[in-house]
Amino acid sequence: MEEIRLKKRRRRIIGFSILGAVIVAIIAIIVACSLSGNKEEVKEGEYKQVEKRTIANSVSGNGVITSVDKEEVTSQQFGSKVKAVYVKEADTVSAGQVICQLDTKNLQDQLNDLRKNISDAKNNKIDQDANYDRRISEARSNRQKNIADTETRLNNARVEYLQSLNELEVANNNYNNYMADPSHHTYDLEATQLQTVIEAKKSNVDLKKNTIDSYEETLNNLRETNDSDLDDARTNYDESADSTIQSMEDQARELEKAIGECTIRCTIGGTVTTLNVKTGETFNGGTVCTIEGLNDFMVEAEISEYDIPDVATGMKVMMKTDATRDKELQGIVTFVAPRATSSGASNNLGALSGMIGMDMSEMASSSGSSNNSATFKVRIALNEQNPRLRLGMNAKISIITESVDNAISVPVDAVQEDDSGNKYVEVATNYDEASKSDGEIEYEKKKVNVNTGLKGSYYIQVSGDISVGDYVYVPPAQGEDSIDEIMNMMGSSAGI
């Protein structure tokens, strides 16, 4: 293991040594070119007229032509066999057209069984309700009969009670009449007998009164009874039965919906661009097919995380495609994704690895040199459709992030900066005369301080003691063989 690690370490050291040698060689070439360029004559600058123009900053990217109307046709009926497919790729379909049919036999069998159970449950509920009705009716009839019988007995008891009161009154009168004779005494045999009769009549009165009270209580109880127990039992049964039936009917509706979903339709018209089912196969979910309209197109692009903060909906977009040649298409940003759709990681040593003939991935891994760049989806609506566009075509886009119309502007290189940091341009005061003299008259230049505004790729907005029509001096551009430009031309792999 130690020997393997030493070998890997030697390989990394050799790789870095070769890489360093390549970079030193490149820099040497660049410096040599730069020095040789110094031997040439200094290029003269030129004069450019101050004009009003639209200056804009933009974010560039690559996009793909997609359809405004697009549908991923799906179904929730996983595990069903595909019974028939009615379209093929490139077919034109209309909204509501059947795409394919899944087998519904198992679902239909379940639905038939469930419907039978629902019917049986409803019939059983009818029978049970009829039974409860019969029992409640019988209970009410018996209660009415008992009430009538009790009322009759109560009336008879009240009559007997009145008779017992009369008999008690007669017994009391007989005793009082006997005792009215001064010769009679309470201890006489006849007086004792009369008292015994009175006590017997009192007992009979009490008995009749108790009988009346008993009948009245019974009658009140009968009248207050409303068969609530049977009513409650029927109510509880009905609620339970209705709940069961409702649950089965809900299941039946779900099965009916599932059977309906087995007939898979599209909701928009267009062209079938992908088809993912075949007759006889089992459908395990996902997209059945993709329908895309061929009349209204839009552009979808991926913008880097560096540029995406500058992009917003409503921004103007300029686009070009190979199919539309030099015609510039225009559009508007309609959607900016709130999160990244992809994140790529790549090392920076690919170009050099080809130059030196070895695999640099191990070196990149060990050195941690990588470039992660997430991208964000942007959708762009076209201002007008073009008959030359097709789905999937590439488009080069420029999103105008900011712009100024009618801006007084000069070439970017015309704006210079003095040692104090003040920006200025040099205005030719005798341009008309000098430009027509074939070099016999030198240009006279006046330094004019300016403030700068929006900067575009080639022009920059300026303000100050400068007017449209003035001619400003543009110094000669730097040599194209400068180290910075070479590094930029090489791209990220040069920034080691």
Task: Give a concise summary.
With 496 residues, this protein is α+β, with helices and mostly antiparallel strands. Helix content is 42%, strand content 28%. It has 8 helices and 21 strands.
Q: What would your notes on this structure say?
A:
This protein has 496 residues and is of the alpha+beta class. The protein has eight helices and 21 strands. The protein has helices at 2-37, 105-179, 189-224, 228-261, 350-356, 361-367, 431-435, 483-490, and strands spanning 46-49, 51-67, 70-74, 80-85, 92-93, 98-102, 263-265, 270-275, 282-283, 287-292, 297-304, 316-320, 329-336, 342-346, 371-382, 394-411, 416-417, 423-428, 445-455, 459-464, 471-474. The strands form four sheets. It has a six-stranded antiparallel β-barrel. The chain has a four-stranded antiparallel β-sheet with strand order 3-10-8-5, with no helix packed on it. It is elongated, with a radius of gyration of 54 Å. The two termini are 31 Å apart. Mean pLDDT is 82; it is low at 33-43, 345-370 and 479-496.
Number of H- or I-type helical stretches: 8
Mean pLDDT: 82
Residues in helices, as a percent range: 40-55%
Largest sheet: 6 strands, antiparallel, barrel
In terms of per-residue confidence, which ranges show pLDDT below 50 for 5 or more consecutive residues? 33-43, 345-370, 479-496
Rg from alpha-carbon coordinates? 54 Å
What's the number of extended β-strand segments?
21
If strands are numbered along the chain, what order do they take across the biggest sheet?
2-11-15-13-12-16
